[in-house]
Specification:
Oligomer: single chain
Structural class: mainly beta
CATH class: Mainly Beta
Helix content: under 10%
Strand content: over 45%
Largest sheet: 6 strands, antiparallel
CATH architecture: Sandwich
Shape: globular
CATH topology: Jelly Rolls
Number of strands: 9
Length: 123
Amino acid sequence: MAAGTVTITEETYGTIKKIKFDWTSGDGAEDGTASGQTTHAYSGKILGLATDPGSPAPTALYDITVTDEDGMDVLMGGGVDRSATVTEYVLSSSLGAVANDKLTINVSAAGTNTKGVAYLYIR
């Protein structure tokens, strides 16, 4: 049995922050899940979310939340029911904001030992 893993890459381009969450889901007691926290704290409006299924692909309608240090989903539910076959995008108008918090990605219902990538953009 193994826990899921997340490799997080944090970049800043001018006023835009880009966070890449490259995840692999676990098995056994951690089946279909993965989580990881950013190194840096962030502040700003969430501009967009992109999710890209990997190989092996996650289960259809898997879920992603990105929570702040108070446990609030800054995606406002926008990461629920992701596709297992195509890249999907969520626009800023459907997303929240973050105020000086580290962010934690939580992947669930993704199936055993599957992969994917989520990109979060903040200004």
